[in-house]
Each structure stands twice: as C-alpha cells, then as structure tokens.
Request: fold
Amino acid sequence: MTENDFSGTFVVVEGADASGKQTQVGRIAEWLRFEGRSSIDPAVEQDILDRMPGKYPDPTMDKVEDSVMDGVWRLSFPTYGQTPGGRVVGSYLDGDLGNRDDVSLEDIIDIFAADRKQFKELIREYLEEGGIIVCDRYREANLIHQLVDFEGEEWERKLEYIKGIDADLPDADVVFYLDISPEAARERMSDKDKDIHEQDFEYMKKSNLNGQKLAEREGWRVIDGERGKDEVEADLRKIIEEFL
Reply:
C-alpha cells in the first residue's frame, strides 16, 4: 500500500461477504460530509460528476447507493447496471456467463478490472482537486476473490499478475479489511438473493481465509466486523483521521 501525493484522501473498505462494507462506507461518507473535511471546489466536483460513465451514479439502483456531493465521493464496485463495465460484471455474477468454472481466470480478472478502469482518470482528478473518496471494494477485491484456488509459489505468481492488471489505478491511502467468519456471513445473508459466489459456501470459506492472508501480507488495517456497527465505525474513524 502506497500513500498518494494527492491533496485528497482515498479510503478503501474491503472484507468478507456480508462483513458490513456497504454500511460502513455509507456511515463514513456521511461523517466526512458533515465534518466538511474535503477541500474540492463545488464547481470542480460538479464538472467531474457530469463526466461520469453511463448513468452513474443512479439513485434508483438497489444494489449500491453511490453519490458525489459535499466533497465526498461514495464509490462502490461493482457498479452493476449503472455503467457499461458494471453491466458485464452483473451478468457474470448473475450466472449469465455460466458458472464460475466456465469462465477463465484471466477473463474474470479483466471483467472486474474493466469496471474500475472506466473511473481511473476521474478518481485521479477528484483526488488531485482535494476530494475524498470512500470506496466499497476496489482493486484489492480481485486479489481476495481470484486467488482462492492457489497456494505457495503459484499463489505468489498470480498475486503479482493480478496486481499488474490494476497497477495503473490510483493507490488508496488506507485499505481496511472487515473480518468476519464464513458462518457469520452466511447467517447475515440468510434472507438475501445471492450471486454465484455467495451461493457457494466452500468458496466463501476460501475467500475469507485468503482475505485474511492478504490483509497481513499487504498491510491492510484489519477490523473485527462481527462487533456492533457503532464500534466498527469508531475504529474506522480513528484510523482515517490519520490520513486527513
């Protein structure tokens, strides 16, 4: 993880499925807006907003609640039906491209990377202008989910390969990993419509272990996501203060 030279701040929240990423990203974005911690000019922010791809951000989307306002960009990946790249990811997760084993690892990596890359220059510009981005999943998610079937030297090689695909994207200032057990995740998702990853409990267990391994390897800030929402948010706020 490399701290940026941008005047803005880039916070990424990763974690196991159902670990509370979306909830905490929303809370942190609201806190930063209320505190007025951004220095981006409102006119510049509006110009960047006007140049977003597709229909992003679409307030009618039920899967994400992205918004750009008051100097804080609440960003989520995948972007699903809001953008061209997001629609491809949505088709994959819905099983329209087949099961996970029907699509090559390289294609899966590229599908998710393309969704992020359509925002590459806008992310960079927003940060250069002093904006704050709080992101639910970023390039680290490809590492968490696409390395689950590898071990040892092959894991190391694939790690560097996937990093290389996303190397042109701006770095986050801090990456959080919300850690919960697969059993807790399954309980939280009991009433949810699940994608092809979430339907596979063995896959969830492997991605959980892989996420913990990566967090230690890459220096992400690990947060116990099984506690109450207020406790988790308090930990996030305390660390984010170091980067503002």
